[in-house]
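Sequence design from tokenized structure. All designs in this work follow the same two-part layout: the structure record, then the generated sequence. An example of the structure record is given first.
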């Protein structure tokens, strides 16, 4: 009798736990935010987003309480070879099973009119709004010392041992 009860309980636990392990989420990793100088009025967050939802989606908006405006930006190269930052109103597509890597000189979440200086190590709540997946809140650490990534390196092409990791001690 009690055996049967235990079995039933176990079954219930398994089925409840399943969604947590199933694919079906937007995953965020390696995010950081910075201002170009201490106390700067504008800044950016760089977030890696992996789409495990099983369907193509699009990051359409970002909000945060740290600045007057938050916009999705990218850089485009003008005809004379100058990189310019532009507001991407249609947002960033994130295909099913793929990821986007925001980085300096590329896609980023832009903070304009920062109301309080970013402090090293402080966490910023950024709400990412996806067309289908809805709102995903990300805690983004401020890292004022992070160096930009160089070019489009593929994994294995470079030696991690030579990369200086700042702010990690
Ligand atoms: Cu920008």
């Amino acid at each position: 009798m009690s055996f049967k009860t235990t079995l039933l309980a176990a079954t219930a636990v398994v089925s409840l736990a399943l969604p947590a392990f199933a694919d079906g989420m937007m995953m965020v990793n390696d995010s950081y935010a910075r201002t170009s100088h201490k106390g700067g009025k504008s800044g950016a967050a760089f977030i890696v987003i992996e789409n495990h939802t099983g369907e193509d989606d699009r990051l359409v908006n970002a909000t945060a309480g740290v600045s007057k405006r938050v916009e999705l930006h990218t850089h485009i190269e003008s005809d004379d070879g100058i990189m310019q930052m532009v507001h991407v109103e249609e947002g960033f597509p994130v295909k099913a099973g793929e990821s986007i890597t925001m980085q300096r000189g590329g896609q980023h979440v832009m903070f304009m009119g920062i109301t309080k200086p970013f402090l090293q190590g402080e966490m910023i709540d950024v709400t990412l709004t996806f067309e289908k997946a809805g709102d995903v809140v990300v805690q983004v650490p401020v890292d004022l010392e992070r160096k930009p990534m160089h070019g489009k390196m593929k994994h294995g092409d470079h030696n991690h041992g030579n990369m200086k990791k700042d702010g990690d001690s």
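Residues 2-21 form the longest helix (20 residues). We note this feature because it recurs in several other targets discussed in the main text.
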